[in-house]
Specification:
With 245 residues, the chain is of the alpha/beta class. It is 33% helix and 16% strand. α2 packs across α4 and α6 packs parallel to α7.
Length: 245
């Protein structure tokens, strides 16, 4: 099951359209076959795969492939705010309200490790790796690890995340990356068991003017059900993606 926004005006909607097409192709169906199984006209399937389908039609098409769209719960106000000194904001530095929401949900004041940090760090953490120390060449350990890695290239960071998690070197890791759910890398995270939380609004990153040209998602590996429930309450508006297939 996928839980996500189906607002057709967003980059996320275009990613979902690509994911629907990918799901159809994985089943080796034509658009006509998907139309028949979802009981929709083939023109509706064509619109859905181009990012123009309505929410109702998208839900029907996704359901035929084994996926489902479910609205997210309403967020609440933070019970508390974690405060720390703002020291330096390099290019694309992590938005503070996101890390505050994660730390609140995990009931912590800081992360055990930030795998891709400026020096000094802008995320509260016990340890951090910088461009100079190269997090990709280090061992990632800790109960709660944070990553907002370089996005170009992103795949090595996804490979490292999955490898360290499967090796049992860390309990839980939270990644903030562009929301491109149709890519092999992000499918790799979901196949490893990651919970995907797609933010409704484009983030404003530190050191940048205006908003980026992409939506963002949090990928969470290793969290307990209670931690995920608390995280969904503390984050800004978002929807959850969970793969049932």
């Amino acid at each position: 099951m996928y839980r996500t926004s189906h607002d057709q005006s967003t980059p996320i909607a275009r990613s979902l359209a690509a994911e629907l097409r990918a799901a159809r192709l994985r089943k080796k169906w034509t658009q006509a076959q998907l139309a028949k199984k979802s009981r929709l006209p083939i023109r509706c399937i064509q619109r859905c795969e181009s990012g123009g389908g309505s929410g109702e039609k998208l839900m029907a098409a996704f359901a035929a492939t084994g996926l489902e769209i479910v609205p997210a719960p309403q967020p609440r106000q933070h019970a508390r705010t974690i405060r720390y000194e703002k020291v330096w904001e390099p290019t694309w530095s992590t938005p503070h309200h996101i890390t505050e929401a994660v730390l609140e949900a995990f009931e912590r004041d800081k992360f055990c490790l930030d795998v891709a940090s400026p020096d000094p760090p802008t995320v509260p953490c016990e340890r951090f790796f910088t461009e100079e120390t190269n997090g990709l060449a280090q061992t990632w350990q800790g109960d709660l690890v944070w990553g907002n890695p370089p996005y170009k290239p992103l795949k090595p960071w996804i490979n490292k995340t999955v490898s360290e998690y499967k090796a049992g070197k860390l309990r839980c890791i939270v990644l903030l990356i562009p929301c491109k759910v149709e890519t092999n890398g992000q499918r790799q995270l979901r196949d490893a068991g990651a919970i995907t939380l797609v933010l409704h609004t484009r983030l404003k990153f530190g050191g940048r003017k205006g908003n980026p040209e992409f939506g963002s998602a949090l990928y969470v590996l290793g969290a307990t059900d209670d931690e995920i429930r608390r995280l969904r309450k503390s984050l800004p508006p978002h929807d959850q993606l969970v793969n049932l297939t």
